[in-house]
Design a protein that fits this description.
Strand order of the largest sheet: 2-13-10-3-9
Bound molecules: 2-(butylsulfanyl)adenosine
Largest sheet: 5 strands, mixed
Number of helices: 25
Structural class: alpha+beta
Oligomer: single chain
Strand content: 15-25%
């Protein structure tokens, strides 16, 4: 089954009314909120749209079995948003249009839980679980206890309150007695139903569960953050917790949070004889429940479930840290009761830690393409986080000093999510006294040139641009898939080309010959020809790939794209002044300095000239010549949430449209963000077509 999140793209783009609405929120015209009076047909249509949208969201996000296309779903959402915009009195707190967030709070209100939110005791091995199981068998007077086993989700616990089937409040666990009101943030979770469905919905339902981020969503989110130059999150758990505790719910809405429910608190109007029955009921009411749950009897059954889950751990789409074992029967639970903060009827059987002890064989230093010197620990291989780890980064000189890692040390190694393996800490108690502090090199281990640290930077660099390690790194980067995409030019080959002095700059790649290549170790005629073909093919490239391939310090793919779109030509970029560069989207003084500095180096200008002379021809980004904005005059008004005014203007211009400041008869389209005022009124008077932000972004594609 594909994780739901893989397809969140289009369904994330929903309309926004922005404005906060009261909580009472029954469907129907709210008299207190003046506005035009809807007809009974319009009221009925709003109700029908909400029912349909809830149904399709359930099919899509909870059952992973959509019945309609994303476009059809978006169209329903747009229609609802338009009706709500026209008749603000019809807007309710639980309308699906409200998922985009909008409320900005000063602080979170405290919420007392009607029933204490308990935590779980932990066991770590067979003996400890046997002890737990024996205690229960004795207390219940049975041979084998029927349990339900569930993955222990690594997120944060929350409680949802549904009254008459409507989601009215959501809170964090807090100290178990009093939590914090995060209702507005929870409403933005796409798989959290705003109203319950099905038979026998209780008048009051307090339901508890875990908010988490799927591994794939986490990766994607971090990649986006990195592309924007923002700090990525350390792990999914931290990012889920951080995202839910945002005072601005629009920030939460932009984060890919998911939820699974697994327990209930106070319930009025339903009873459950067993946990199995309870989870089935929750599912029947449309609540997302983890399908990975199983009934197990006694120690043997639970051990098997634990072992099976552990084996699956790394293949699961979310992070877990153990197996939760719960007594199935409600009457058994009541007999067992609780100790101060945790129930006697459940326990978390934790998995072995993802941090393992191993030994540092050696400390190496690597020289990257920009000369950056990175210390690296070579380890005795350990299996951690689903892979065998034999190297761990020590990041930089300061980090190495701070951790004081030495050759021969015993260390804890961790690998979390998509993060590269790292050393958590040294087990100093295991030192023999023979370990000596590592001396960071003052000269490059490859070319012996002096190593320097820029005034404030943590990174030490080799100062020789002709250093073979730097050159090999630049070649590798140049050839990489998202740069010039030279198939077959890997690390080893780059090193060999540099070592044999076959290349002294990336431009030399285009001068390689068959005899030169076949002279290399393990290089047959066929692979040599393949490589030459791949190099020749790379000449036809795009400007953004070309700029990225140059390896300008700090210029990643996103910046290369922005530069290509702005300058559209190599010469224009080469001639751009510091001020010109700062006019490019997302480029600040630091980046402008770095780019200008790069092109001021005669060597770099020479390489660019040689590349072009060799026939490399970077094509400028295509201008869209026909589309919804071509030849149109567009006016932007109100506050746009998903993009800045500048970005919206640029996007329209790139599509051949013109952006104007005022509405007139010549205006073709008005994009109305939040709190649009007189321009919107004027556009309506003149019969100018008005787009909501969601409609606008949909047209941008
Ligand atoms: S039941 C009374 N079930 O683990 C039992 N908890 O260490 C209350 N957790 O605070 C919790 N997955 O945040 C339960 N399937 C699961 C769980 C789970 C994760 C978390 C939850 C709780 C913590 C206790």
């Amino acid at each position: 089954m594909r994780p739901n999140s893989e397809r969140q793209g289009t369904r994330g783009a929903q309309c926004c009314q922005g404005e906060l609405v009261d909580r009472a929120g029954a469907i129907g015209h709210n008299a207190a909120r003046m506005g035009p009076e809807p007809t009974p047909a319009e009221v009925a249509r709003v109700e029908a749209l909400r029912r349909q949208l809830a149904h399709h969201a359930h099919r899509y996000y909870t059952l992973d079995a959509p019945e309609i296309s994303d476009a059809a779903y978006d169209a329903l959402m747009r229609e609802l948003a338009q009706l709500e915009a026209a008749f603000p009195g019809l807007l309710t707190a639980d309308s699906p249009t409200q998922r985009v967030g909008g409320a900005v709070l000063e602080k979170f209100e405290k919420v007392p839980h009607r029933q204490q939110m308990l935590s779980l005791g932990n066991v770590f091995d067979d003996a400890e679980f046997t002890e737990f199981d024996e205690r229960l068998r004795k207390a219940l007077g049975v041979e084998a206890v029927p349990y339900v086993c569930e993955p222990k989700m690594d997120g944060l616990a929350i409680e949802l309150v549904y009254q008459q089937g409507r989601f009215v409040q959501g809170s964090t666990r807090g100290d178990g007695v009093i939590g914090e009101d995060v209702t507005e943030n929870l409403k933005t979770l796409k798989n959290l139903p705003l109203s319950l469905r099905g038979e026998g919905v209780p008048a009051l339902l307090e339901v508890r569960g875990e908010v988490f981020i799927r591994k794939a969503d986490f990766k994607r989110m971090n990649a986006q953050l990195r592309a924007r130059g923002e700090e990525p999150f350390v792990n999914p758990r931290n990012s889920a917790a951080g995202s839910l505790r945002q005072l601005d719910s629009r920030v939460t809405a932009s984060r890919p949070l998911s939820i699974y429910l697994y327990e209930v608190g106070v319930v009025d109007g339903a009873t459950f004889a067993t946990h199995v029955e309870k989870l089935a009921a929750l599912e029947g009411w449309g609540l997302p429940v983890n399908p990975r749950r199983r009934v197990a009897t006694g120690f043997a059954g639970v051990k098997e479930a634990w072992t099976a889950l552990l084996a699956e751990r790394h293949a699961l789409p979310y992070e877990i840290d153990g197996l939760v074992v719960k007594v199935d029967r409600t009457d058994d639970r009541a007999r067992l009761g609780q100790v101060s903060k945790s129930p006697r009827w459940a326990v978390a059987w934790k998995f072995p830690p993802e941090e393992l002890e191993t030994r540092v064989r050696k400390i190496l230093v690597q020289v990257g393409r920009t000369g950056a010197i990175t210390p690296l620990a070579e380890l005795e291989p350990v299996f951690v986080g689903g892979v065998t780890v034999s190297r761990a980064t020590l990041h930089n000189e300061d980090e190495l000093r701070r951790k004081d890692v030495r050759e021969g040390d015993w260390v804890f190694v961790r690998r979390a999510g998509d993060v590269i393996p790292e050393i958590v800490k040294v087990v100093t108690a295991r030192r023999t006294g023979a370990e000596v502090p590592f001396v960071f090199p003052t000269s490059c281990p490859v070319c012996a040139a002096p190593v320097k640290r820029a005034d404030e930077g943590a990174i030490a660099r080799c100062t020789n641009r002709a250093c073979p390690a730097q050159l090999a790194g630049r070649l590798r980067h140049f050839a990489t898939r998202t740069a010039m995409d030279v198939d077959g030019l890997g690390d080893k080959l780059c090193e060999a080309l540099v070592e044999r002095a076959l290349v002294s700059s990336v431009a030399d790649l285009y001068r390689l010959t068959l005899p030169a290549l076949t002279g290399l170790e393990r290089m047959g005629e066929k692979s040599a020809q393949n490589l030459l073909d791949a190099i020749a093919r790379s000449k036809q490239t795009t400007l953004r790939r070309f700029i990225y391939a140059l390896g300008i310090p700090d210029v990643g793919e996103a910046t290369a794209k922005a530069l290509a779109e702005h300058f559209r030509d190599v010469d224009a970029l080469l001639g751009a002044s510091f001020d010109d560069l700062q006019r490019v989207k997302d480029i600040g003084p630091e980046m402008a300095t770095s780019i200008r500095g790069f092109f001021d180096e005669p060597d770099n200008r020479a390489v660019v000239a040689q590349l072009l002379a060799a026939g490399v021809s970077p094509a400028p980004p295509e201008l869209v010549t026909s589309g919804p904005f071509t030849g149109k005059t567009v006016v932007l008004t109100g506050t746009l949430i998903t993009l800045t005014r500048e970005a919206a203007k640029e996007a329209i211009e790139r599509r051949g449209g013109k952006v104007s400041g005022s509405v007139s008869k010549k205006t073709d389209l008005l994009v109305a963000g939040e709190e649009a005022g007189s321009k919107l009124t004027k556009a309506r008077e003149l019969g100018v077509k008005v787009l909501t932000e969601a409609e606008f972004t949909a047209l941008l594609g």
